[in-house]
Amino acid sequence: MVGSVVRYLETEHALLTFGLPGLIAFLVGVLSGIGVASEYSTSGSVNVALALGSVLLVVGGLVLGSTGLILHAVINAARRWRAIGGSQD
Q1: Which residue in 57, 55, 50, 56 sits closest to 36, CA to CA?
Q2: For the chain, which ranges sit under pLDDT 70?
Q3: C-alpha–C-alpha distance, residues 54 and 63, integer Å
Q4: What percent of the chain shows pLDDT beyond 90?
């Protein structure tokens, strides 16, 4: 049942399923990174765990967002292709 829900969300709401969490993760990572940079500029030391977490959130957010955009584009292209009679699946 969970698999059916995930497949539905992937095909019908790819941007919402992947893009929104990706955007949130990216923004949290950037804000956290700004905090790390601010801490470094004032004290000269870096909280390595927070810095790595920031990088992980930024990269993960970019991957999720890209995945959502690509899925959205591919699914819409496939739907248009079927609509013009490109495939009789």
Answers
A1: 50
A2: 86-89
A3: 14
A4: 58
- Cα–Cα–Cα angle for 82, 84, 87, rounded to 5 degrees: 40
Report helix angle 48-83 to 20-43, nearest 10. Answer: 160
Would you state the structure tokens that stand for residue 67, as one six-digit string?
Answer: 């995945």
Token output for 7: 């497949």
Entry pTM: 0.79
